[in-house]
Each structure stands twice: as structure tokens, then as C-alpha cells.
Specification:
The chain is α+β, with helices and mostly antiparallel strands and 191 residues long. Helices cover 21% and strands 18% of the residues. The chain has 3 domains: 85 residues, no CATH class; 37 residues; 56 residues, no CATH class. This is UPF0251 protein AQPE_2425.
Length: 191
């Protein structure tokens, strides 16, 4: 059984969803570049870091960084040669910014400028906000699905996402405990 992937650190997600070639009809099979691959290209080609420095920034080994970077370069080359769109999504990453939640509107927002203090919600302007602190999980036994409406808890099965589980008490779609989503109750399946 292969060793599980370590979560890779990145500064922020891209400010856009991808790229599309001009002059070609749209295709349904774009090239998907994971967030860690995007970060590897950003650190090496844009920030001009060497592989050792970039690997330290992403908190991975240098050989792992080299594999991520090579995969990203191959995908970009494939998109250029075949004229395919590029989409940025997925990957096993966490963002090196502070996240906040608004208790009034339920908005989650990040704050990349660490030197400035966050005082208001970016959506509604409320001062009723709190910083999100995710405590690291010690083992998979702590993975729990929770109903956002009634609080019913169920042990998370590794093969089934929590969003596919339905609460037996109130018929709501469940979420992973400890994630930002467990505070929201915007679920059409609820009674």
C-alpha cells in the first residue's frame, strides 16, 4: 500500500479558473492542473526559486517537488500542443493565509495581507467575525461526518465523502466535522 500524500503548502489559489485557446471550438476535456502543480510553476518560473528553495516553501522534499514540477510542465505542454483548455483545481494542499468566518452572513474569506488587521466581513461589513483555526487531525479515527442542522455525528468512511451521507434524523446532507462547511446550514435536502 503506497504511503499517503503529505499536504502541500501554497500561498494562495490562482485568481482565475484556467485558460482557453483562442480560435478553437470549446472542448469538454481540458487539461487539469492541480493547485500544487500551479504552485510549483509559480515558485520556479515566476518567483525564480531553485528547486531546493521551492521545496522548502511547499514543505515537501526536493525529489517530490521535482516530480510535481515535471508533471505540471508536461500538462502545460500537452495543452499547448493539442490546443486544450487548462483548468486549475484539486490537489492535496492547504493555503498559507488566515481564514475568517462571519457569524452574521456565514461568509468565509481569507486574508493574504498578514500585516493588516481584519476588522470587517468582506461581504456584509459586519464586525462579528472570528478567525478559523483548524486543529490538525491526529489519525483517521477522528474523521467524523456531522449534520449541520441537528449535530448528529457518524464516523467518516474513507471511501465515501461526507457530502454523500444523509442524516437519519433530519434528512440533511452531512459535512466533515472541523471544516469551515460545518457552520453552514444551506442545504436543500433538509426538512
Amino acid at each position: 500500500m503506497p504511503r499517503p500524500k503529505r499536504i502541500r503548502k501554497m500561498n494562495n489559489p490562482p485568481h482565475f479558473k484556467g485558460f482557453r485557446p483562442i480560435g478553437l471550438p470549446e472542448e469538454n476535456n481540458p487539461v487539469v492542473i492541480n493547485f500544487e502543480e500551479y504552485e510549483a510553476i509559480r515558485l520556479s518560473d515566476f518567483e525564480l526559486n531553485g528547486q531546493v528553495e521551492a521545496a522548502k516553501i511547499m514543505e515537501v522534499s526536493r525529489p517530490t517537488f521535482a516530480r510535481i514540477y515535471e508533471s505540471a510542465r508536461r500538462k502545460v505542454a500537452q495543452a499547448f500542443v493539442h490546443g486544450k483548455a487548462i483548468v486549475f483545481e484539486g490537489g492535496k494542499v492547504y493555503f498559507d493565509t488566515e481564514w475568517y468566518s462571519c457569524k452574521n452572513c456565514g461568509c468565509w474569506f481569507n486574508h493574504p495581507e498578514k500585516e493588516l488587521e481584519v476588522k470587517n466581513c468582506t461581504l456584509c461589513g459586519s464586525t462579528n467575525i472570528e478567525q478559523y483555526n483548524e486543529s490538525p487531525r491526529l489519525n483517521s479515527a477522528e474523521d467524523i461526518c456531522i449534520c449541520p442542522k441537528c449535530g448528529y455525528e457518524k464516523v467518516h468512511l474513507p471511501t465515501t465523502p461526507c457530502r454523500n451521507e444523509i442524516c437519519p434524523d433530519c434528512n440533511c446532507q452531512m459535512v466533515r466535522k472541523g471544516t469551515p462547511h460545518n457552520h453552514r446550514i444551506s442545504n436543500e435536502n433538509c426538512n
